[in-house]
Amino acid sequence: MLSRLISSTRGIPERGDVPQHIAIVMDGNGRWARQRFLPRVAGHKRGLDTVRDVVKLCIDHGVAHLTLFAFSSENWRRPQEEVSFLMQLFMQALREEVKKLHKNNIRLRVIGDLSRFDAKLVETISQAEQLTAGNSALSLSIAANYGGRWDILNAMNQMLAADDSKRKGFSEEDLAPYLCLANAPEPDLFIRTGGEQRVSNFLLWQLAYTEFYFTDCLWPDFNSAEFDLAIASYRQRERRFGRTSEQLSSVRPQE
Ligand code: IPE
Ligand code: IPE
Ligand code: MG
Known about the structure:
Blueprint: H1 2-5, E1 21-25, H2 29-35, H3 40-61, E2 65-72, H4 80-103, E3 106-111, H5 119-132, E4 138-146, H6 148-162, H7 172-175, E5 189-192, E6 211-214, H8 224-235, H9 245-249
Parallel strand pairs: 1-2, 1-5, 2-4, 3-4, 5-6
The structure holds 3-methylbut-3-enyl trihydrogen diphosphate (2 copies) and magnesium ion (MG).
């Protein structure tokens, strides 16, 4: 149990355990639409249906934390119409889904640099976070205008602003509370749909010892059977965190 409460680079989850924290790069919406001769944005709309399904699947499987990459700090480079559509979809989804999330005891957080969003969106996010703050069935984090490098630099800047003496030097433990997802264990399982095998500036710090799972399945097609494949793949893996296999099968050290 201890392993679930502390950094996953220190605790060792048992082989066969369900991942406590899943982080997903939801990729392939545009291609899904193109295959159907639809505009790219139709893929984003369908992708939102998959989000609903995956949230439910996580709860059914006893996953405690789910972190979804919805919009990267690099996605502003897309055509203006697509960026605007994504912002509207995000706003609409927040408005329409928050009550349902709350009813299902789901805690919502949005991680990323919110300074670039308009004031109305920031206010809607903050209300949703406040409403769901006490919920415990699943902690759902949506990464929006998020970048892994931004996260690390932002944490450092915040830490230094809070305690100037850290300029002389600081440890991982000093920085940890300022990083996004500080309240969750590090992701056990990283899933990327859509066939690309890259991190795309997602949780660079937090993925240090995460298990990676890549699938060609496009995000709008990622259904319960695909989810089960990812979980089954994870459950076969032996997580060693630098130790040998023999060490794990004798005593299971926590440090
Ligand atoms: C992922 O799907 C969703 C976002 C990045 C917002 P894409 O839009 O990247 O889909 P592809 O990669 O073009 O198929
Ligand atoms: C990564 O997908 C970001 C999200 C899923 C939100 P992209 O499709 O933007 O990634 P790259 O740019 O192809 O690596
Ligand atoms: Mg993509």
